[in-house]
């Protein structure tokens, strides 16, 4: 009996250590240029493997492993087809998010574990804001856009929105210390979104607050509504305080970033132009696309009025550069998120709901992390199709965490046959091998937005 107890304690210790390793790995990835510095993205992949092993991730369905491995493998295949390695490190970034997804789904099988995972996401969000705040404060210019370790304020704001959505769910439906931590981080993240000046970030933060209001009403009635209302007031109050004369000597305030709203029309027009170009380019080479990092030079070759090295839409970028090989996994990703949402809202046989497709009070109160993560996942998927979010490993990892928390209750996990377990492990090996291969053959793994030359893209203007 003592041997059994010792083994049980050993497994618990291994579990705790594995969870810490996964989140510390994610924090380090985010700290070093959002994962673009050195080989931190591969370290991120490695940091999620122990949790996958401890949680016996091979018990998850084989088709989930196939979906996770397909996207990074497709990038390596596309690179081999076109005969160059530029852009192949995209496989490493995709593999990082996929490895976290599998590990969290396998481990977070009950509400308590999902709450722990959500708490990790909240801490990562706080670290993202604090890391960005110090240099921003040092600039002594409150009007300057905050962007932290990210190249652009839009992607930085989205990283904060993802964490804020999870925190909001816990604030309106959680209890005790978790509510307090969620409140603090929501205020900081919201202030960071305001300081970034990202229009899309502001809109999606508003959507997250509205979703939190709905969850709060479901879970706690008028008390939940009050919690959501307090958050809506506290966020701009925090932003004002963080840009007040206490910290900045200039006369600006966070309201100054709203000046950029005036050029919103030009931004939208630019994205529509990029999307049209991506659709057109993909149609010219539907099977294999034009090659990784070819979008920018080919847009030049087309003579488009607007230029970008990225289509600002991950699915259309995959269509233009990798054709069917790369776009099918993205379509599967979109379908998978839709399936998670539908299965989450579909009533379980043992639950009683007043409205068939609206979660009950008990469901939200028992598992607030799940619902906050579901909101975060939907928002992440939406913004993924308006910017180059997945150029940064840090935000892919964050998406993997919230996707795992949201999907864990609806993805079956049971004892697998030896054949299925072997297949799952083999696909996991493919995933990791794709990450390593993609990083190794890419001459510029830390510069995902650097396009290839016009000559290599086959462009003769």
Kindly name the structural category. mainly alpha
Distance between the termini: 77 Å
What is the helix content? Answer: 55-70%
Shape summary:
globular
Largest sheet: none
Q: List the uncertain runs.
A: none
Which strand-content bin applies to the residues?
Answer: under 5%
Tell me the quaternary state: single chain
Tally of individual domains: 1
Order of helices and strands: HHHHHHHHHHHHHHHH
Mean pLDDT: 89
Keywords: Membrane, Transmembrane, Transmembrane helix
Membrane topology: Multi-pass membrane protein
Protein name: O-antigen ligase-related domain-containing protein
Domain O-antigen ligase-related: 187-331
Write the layout of secondary structure elements.
Blueprint (H helix, E strand, L loop, with lengths): L1 H30 L8 H15 L7 H21 L7 H18 L3 H28 L14 H21 L3 H20 L2 H22 L1 H21 L21 H21 L10 H8 L11 H32 L15 H6 L1 H16 L9 H15 L10 H24 L20
Helix pairs in contact: 1-2, 1-5, 1-15, 2-4, 3-4, 3-12, 3-16, 4-15, 4-16, 5-6, 5-7, 5-14, 5-15, 6-7, 6-8, 6-9, 6-14, 6-15, 7-9, 8-9, 8-14, 10-11, 10-12, 12-14, 14-15
What would you note in describing this structure?
It is a multi-pass membrane protein. Residues 187-331 form the O-antigen ligase-related domain. With 461 residues, the protein is mainly α. It has one domain (10-441). Helix content is 69%, strand content 0%. The protein contains 16 helices and no strands. The chain has helices at 2-31, 40-54, 62-82, 90-107, 111-138, 153-173, 177-196, 199-220, 222-242, 264-284, 295-302, 314-345, 361-366, 368-383, 393-407, 418-441. α5 runs antiparallel to α15 (393-407), α6 (153-173) packs parallel to α15 (393-407) and α12 runs antiparallel to α14 (368-383). The longest helix is centred in the C-terminal third of the chain and has 32 residues, at 314-345. The radius of gyration is 22 Å and the shape is globular. The model has no long low-confidence stretch (mean pLDDT 89).
């Amino acid at each position: 009996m003592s041997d059994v107890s010792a083994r049980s304690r050993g497994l618990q210790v291994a579990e705790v250590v594995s969870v810490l390793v996964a989140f510390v790995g994610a924090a380090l990835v985010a700290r070093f240029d959002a994962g673009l510095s050195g080989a931190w993205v591969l370290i991120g992949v490695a940091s999620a493997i122990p949790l996958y092993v401890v949680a016996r991730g091979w018990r998850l369905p084989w088709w989930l492993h196939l979906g996770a491995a397909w996207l990074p493998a497709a990038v390596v295949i596309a690179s081999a087809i076109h005969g160059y390695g530029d852009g192949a490190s995209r496989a490493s970034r995709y593999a990082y998010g996929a490895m976290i997804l599998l590990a969290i789904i396998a481990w977070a099988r009950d509400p308590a574990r999902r709450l722990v995972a959500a708490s990790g996401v909240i801490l990562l969000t706080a670290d993202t804001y604090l890391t960005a705040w110090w240099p921003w404060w040092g600039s002594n210019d409150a009007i300057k856009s905050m962007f932290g370790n990210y190249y652009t304020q839009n992607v930085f704001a989205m990283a904060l929105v993802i964490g804020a959505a999870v925190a909001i769910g816990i604030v309106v439906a959680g209890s005790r210390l978790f509510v307090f931590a969620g409140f603090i981080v929501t205020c900081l993240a919201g202030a960071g979104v305001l300081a970034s000046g990202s229009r899309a970030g502001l809109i999606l933060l508003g959507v997250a607050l509205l979703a939190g209001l709905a969850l709060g009403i479901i879970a706690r009635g008028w008390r939940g509504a009050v919690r959501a209302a307090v958050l809506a007031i506290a966020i701009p109050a925090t932003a004002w305080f963080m840009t007040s004369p206490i910290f900045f000597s200039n006369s600006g305030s966070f309201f100054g970033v709203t000046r950029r709203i005036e050029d919103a029309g030009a931004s939208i027009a630019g994205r529509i132009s990029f999307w049209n170009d991506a659709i057109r380019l993909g149609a010219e080479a539907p099977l294999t696309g034009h090659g990784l990092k070819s979008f920018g030079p080919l847009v030049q070759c087309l003579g488009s009025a607007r230029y970008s090295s990225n289509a600002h839409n991950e699915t259309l970028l995959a269509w233009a550069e990798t054709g069917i090989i790369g776009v099918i996994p993205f379509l599967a990703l979109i379908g998978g998120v839709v399936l998670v949402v539908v299965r989450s809202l579909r009533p379980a046989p043992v639950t009683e709901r007043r409205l068939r497709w609206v979660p009950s009070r008990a469901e939200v109160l028992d598992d607030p992390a799940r619902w906050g993560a579901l909101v975060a996942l939907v928002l992440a998927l939406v913004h993924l199709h308006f910017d180059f979010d997945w150029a940064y490993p840090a935000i892919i990892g964050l998406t993997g965490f919230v996707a795992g928390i949201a999907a864990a209750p609806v993805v079956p996990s049971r004892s697998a046959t030896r054949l299925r377990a072997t297949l799952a492990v083999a696909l996991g090996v493919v995933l990791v091998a794709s990450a390593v291969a993609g990083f190794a053959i890419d001459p510029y793994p830390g510069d995902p937005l650097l396009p290839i030359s016009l000559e290599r893209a086959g462009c003769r203007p």
